[in-house]
Specification:
With 286 residues, the protein is an alpha/beta fold. It contains eleven helices and ten strands. Helix 6 links the parallel strand 4 and strand 5.
């Protein structure tokens, strides 16, 4: 099964109430590892890139890696630009070939956010791409984007007006979730997800997924959170795996980079695969 549009992946997940992992990769190794996990678990997958990763690796190089690694892939996958407040980066990624983008204008007044999101949706449609929107900043800083100030929720009527006016394909509401590592289990507004979907059926993106309990994941996915973002967990797994290996290498005084890469890859594959099983996407590719 080839690379498919974001909406194609989320339509089935939303209808059948399972979650698709949307995992932020940081380099070629992590990209290959999450794709391998998707094939191994027969799961759809959303691969995400942050603005920071796009700028550090380069959009053309990233996309070349993507096309090479997904050639002939047997599960549905899509490439998504995560939290991007910069219109020029949105345009660049759409031009290069990203399947979807999250235009993060949450720091703008809702009226201006809505106006610009309408423009981004129109631009994305010209490329056959999709758009995720949000009107509230998700608490926490991820790859230099965001704020540690607690997000304020907009009234339901405001959210619905944004959805109807912009025509975004996915919506990311603030429900007490946060980017980064939680210091304690967060108190989430589960009902807000249900209220939005009851009034305007649309796949919901759950941000700040790293650190939620299995019960919280299952509850939110059951309500319609079809896209479940994971970033911090991958970074921590990737870097801690490297740290453990390098500490052991120092003790043995044996330095073999390919062995380091294999260890990190395996740990990332296991993380991604476990998320696919937890979210219910494993075995859904077909």
């Amino acid at each position: 099964m080839p690379v498919v549009p974001l909406a194609d992946i989320l339509a089935d997940a939303f209808e059948r109430r399972y979650g698709v992992p949307a995992i932020n990769i940081v380099n070629d190794l992590t990209l290959e590892a999450v794709l391998a996990a998707a094939v191994e678990r027969s799961s759809p997958l959303i691969v995400q890139t942050s603005v920071k990763t796009v700028k550090s690796v380069g959009s053309e190089v990233l996309y070349a890696m993507w096309t090479s690694m997904t050639a002939g892939i047997e599960v549905p996958v899509t490439l998504h630009l995560d939290h991007c407040p910069e219109r020029e980066v949105i345009s660049e990624c759409l031009r290069v070939g990203w399947n979807s983008v999250l235009f993060d204008a949450s720091r703008m007044p809702v009226e201006e956010n809505t106006r610009q999101t309408v423009e981004v949706v129109a631009e994305a449609r010209r490329y056959g791409a999709h758009v995720e929107g949000e009107i509230e900043s998700i608490t926490g800083v991820e790859d230099g984007i965001g704020s540690d100030k607690a997000a304020e929720q907009q009234d339901l009527a405001v959210a619905l007006d944004f959805l109807r006016t912009t025509g975004v394909d996915v919506f990311a509401p603030a429900i007490g979730n946060a980017h980064g590592s939680y210091r304690q289990l967060p108190v989430l507004d589960f009902q807000r997800v249900s209220d939005i979907i009851a009034a305007y059926p649309i796949p919901i993106a759950l941000h700040g997924g790293s650190g939620l309990s299995d019960e919280q994941f299952h509850d939110l996915i059951g309500r319609g959170c079809a896209k479940v973002n994971i970033s911090t967990a991958l970074k921590e797994t990737f870097m801690k795996s490297g740290l453990v290996f390098l500490q052991q290498a120092a003790e043995r005084q044996k330095w073999d980079p390919p062995s380091l890469f294999r260890a990190q890859r395996q740990d990332v594959v296991e993380l991604a695969g476990s998320l696919m099983t937890l979210f219910g996407s494993a075995g859904r590719a077909g």
